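Bench log. Compound arrived from synthesis this morning; before running ITC I wanted a structural hypothesis for how beta-D-galactopyranuronic acid sits in the protein. Inputs:
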Amino acid sequence: METYQRVKDNIMILTKPSASFIIGMASVLATIPAFSFSQTVQGWIAPAEVVEKLSKSQPQYNYYEEKVPVYTLPDLLLPAEGKRIVNAEAWNLTRRQEILELFRENVYGRVPETPYNMIFRISGIDNNALEGAATRKEVDIEISSEGLSLTIRLNLFVPNDATEGVPAFLLINNRGTEQADPSRKIKNEFWPAEEIISRGYAAAVFQNSDVDPDNFDDFRNGIHGILDRGERKGDSWGTIAAWAWGASRCMDYLVTDSDIDPARVAVIGHSRGGKTALWAAAEDQRFAMAVSNESGCGGAALARRKFGETVEVINKAFPHWFCRNYIQWGNNEDSMPVDMHMLLALIAPRAVYVTSASEDLWADPRGSYLSLYHSLPVFRLFDSNTELDKRMPPLNTPVSSGNTAYHVRDGVHNLLLKDWNWIMDFADRVLKQ
Ligand code: GTR
């Protein structure tokens, strides 16, 4: 893998070669087997000017491929005890549960077992939304326990021309409400409800802050303030686990709505929302697909690469996102019993789509792709034809195999219509056929 990365680095610099550099490179390339060059030029490499710019402005973080440490990933198919997993049945029965527990214990934390009541209230229905193309429903999901309560507002558009329950995208909105405005006065590519409807999907969204505000207050506000009991422990749930739990409460509603096909609901999120979408699908197998848009550290990106944002950095900046036990893995990634390929594997055999953006090196595009690549042994237990190239696909070129997909889009950290269109192309294949 190291040789492979260095080959890529060489080619990366060649995008703007100086004369002396070309001469220098000639001797380097002479040592590379002939097939490497043609293979390498096809795949994505981080733009040299972005690497330089970020490395200058943030010298404390690594943006150089050649500085990625040599690492060994935990073996997905080797349980703590017993024999190597060789089939889907054994994976589901033993190893999947073992890895899920490791993520609860070491990364996101455990949902408390506190009982609660849940009520769905349809607060509004507009049968003539989106110029008649959809019905809009405002659903309030009220959660209460021992006199305390909160409400998650689920906004939902369902296509009016459907004759049966449709597949749906549930977006975890971690940005301002204007990015996913259900009144459609403000339209934003972050939640292109019109396009989602026109392609035959329901478009659902909730605000992550309805479940738990995105700030550190020692876990007093949001759902923590309602369900947490007693002292916090090392594996008590953090805010990402709370948001994922909120996605599952939305799913609780969606399975009751006959306009939706409950077997074809995708959960999608961007960045911190992408981390959440992956964990939601790992915890809740009712989600048929998870989309991680540029989720980076604590999401799709391999922690052991220490590229861009790291475990240590994310815990300092966002002390409420993960469980306390996660802190110990900062600068100690090699000892962590999991890495993020194992999170993606927890979603198998359901569909998973991982995305990156070419200028978003903070979220480590290559580490995200490699994570997907290294999760494939589990997807192959279910569909032996699932195969991706170890080289990244070129820019703006989605690749998919079986129930896995990836793209790296040009540009900066965001969820755009371009991303959605490729994601829906994949969903057309895996959720509609
Ligand atoms: C960043 C954070 C990332 C990512 C991002 C976002 O500040 O370091 O892990 O989650 O925020 O959510 O936009």
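What the model suggests: The first helix runs from residue 2 to 13. DSSP finds 14 helices and ten strands in the chain.
ITC booked for Thursday regardless.
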